[in-house]
Write a structure and sequence with these properties.
single chain, alpha/beta, 8-stranded mixed beta sheet, two-stranded antiparallel ribbon, 15 helices, about 15% strand
Length: about 450
């Protein structure tokens, strides 16, 4: 590990030196080169610091204390495929450390879950209480808060999306950081159950893994996670009960805020103590399999993140890593939007610069993407993991040339807080994804 970190430092320094030389050689593009160099330095620093993130380990005494915690899982449900919901609950009751309570809150779905509800509420495993609540459609925040506000016995709340199946040791591993009393929230690692379905799920999966291992790994090492994955996260229950009124009553520019629930809970946790991730706690969730679903989900995320960035700049300590990550990220996003404009205005003189920049970006993506195969799944061999690494550069270019422009629409339309997905029913089913995956593996 020490040799790998040393090699990473050498490569990062060499790359930064190259950027400085380019800044000198491409004098007409010095402002762009300066922004590019800042982006490279920011990426390199994250890459290096992310090596500090390690799975939390605890002593026998700490484990005994964690075993006494009462855990409640909140599963908000809205127009999900019943087979996915069934898989979600089955994975929860099959945990090596099962929760004491699983609460499913149906937020006014048009899908009939009566058979599924009857099956699980009638046949709860010993020691696990399963309750099923239905309410009028009010949004994910309100669905979660039905449990948050009325479960007075829980020590830890776990949030799990209804299309997510936890790996057998996920809750056991996810609880370990709570051995440190100032840890308020823990993010699990989100993996795509259907990553092999098509090119979209494969590339988005690679991009997501890199973000979690590198960007989130660095944030976690500072106790400064900015957003826990909604698919699987854990929170101290006393904190959550305290913030329920602010959580469901949040407004922005006079409008109720319904999106960005996971980022809001993370920010509340960070305000009380440390927010970290546990890189050995895994959740398998479903990624969009169609371009339409993918784009609508991305726009929804960008609407939520626009508001969250405002709150981070306002409420995070200026000396915190999270505050500076937010500031630099916004600055680089704005600076990067100027690059295509200047390239078009100065073409063909900018051709050499353009191809050199794209080549450098692809090479840097594959170099830093070497962290991706570090996440090993039992259903994936080395060839598949290498294929995931190969997908990272296309995923990065997709994010740069397709998703980044869409972020502007998310920003300007941030006051539109509708879900945009699953409003007309389930958009993805487990049977379809499994059939796709079998054709790919064959």
């Amino acid at each position: 590990m020490g040799a790998a970190v040393t090699a990473a430092v050498v490569l990062a320094v060499a790359g930064l030196a190259r950027h400085v030389l380019f800044t000198w050689d491409y004098r007409p593009y010095r402002p762009l080169m300066a922004a590019w160099s800042l982006a490279f330095a920011f990426s390199a620093i994250q890459w290096l610091l992310s090596w500090r993130d390690r799975p939390w380990v605890i002593t026998a005494v700490q484990q005994a204390r964690l075993d006494r915690l009462r855990v409640t899982v909140a599963v908000p449900l809205y127009n999900e495929d019943p087979a996915l919901v069934d898989r979600c609950i089955w994975a929860l009751v099959s945990q090596s450390r099962p929760p004491q309570r699983i609460a499913v809150v149906d937020d006014g779905s048009s899908v009939d879950y009566s058979a599924l509800r009857e099956h699980w509420t009638r046949g709860s495993p010993e020691g696990v209480e399963i309750c099923w609540i239905r309410q009028h459609n009010a949004g994910k925040k309100h669905a979660q808060s039905v449990i948050f506000a009325h479960d007075h016995d829980a020590d830890v709340f776990v949030t799990v999306d209804s299309d997510t199946a936890l790996e057998r040791n996920a809750i056991s591993e996810g609880l370990k950081p709570f051995a440190r009393r100032d840890v308020m929230s823990v993010a699990g690692i989100e993996l795509a159950f259907n990553s092999a379905t098509n090119w979209l799920t494969r590339t988005v999966s690679a991009r997501s893994m890199f973000f979690q291992v590198v960007a989130c790994g660095t944030q976690s090492s500072f106790g400064d996670m900015l957003v826990n994955r909604g698919a699987f996260a854990l929170y101290r229950a006393d904190l959550i009960r305290d913030i329920v009124p602010a959580y469901i009553g949040e407004t922005f520019m006079g409008r109720p805020v319904r999106l960005g629930d996971d980022a809001a809970l993370t920010l509340f946790a960070r305000g009380r103590g440390r927010a970290v991730q546990q890189s050995s706690a895994f959740a398998l969730t479903m990624y969009p399999e169609t371009l339409s679903h993918h784009i609508r989900q991305w726009i929804r995320w960008m609407r939520g993140s626009t508001i969250r960035n405002c709150w981070r700049l306002r409420y995070l300590p200026v000396r915190s890593y999270g505050w500076w990550f937010t500031v630099i990220g916004i600055q680089l996003f704005l600076a990067s939007t100027i690059v295509p404009v200047m390239i078009v205005l100065t073409w063909p003189e900018s051709a050499t610069f353009t191809w050199g920049a794209i080549t450098a970006l692809v090479c840097w993506a594959y170099l830093t993407g070497l962290r991706i195969p570090a996440i090993r799944r039992s259903d994936e061999g080395w060839w598949y993991r290498l294929g995931s690494l190969a997908c990272y550069a296309p995923a990065m270019l997709w994010g740069m040339f397709v998703l980044r422009p869409l972020r502007f629409w998310g920003i300007v339309s941030c006051l539109r807080q509708d879900w945009t997905t699953r409003t007309d029913g389930a958009e993805i089913g487990i049977a379809t994804s499994r059939a796709h995956a079998e054709r790919v593996s064959a």
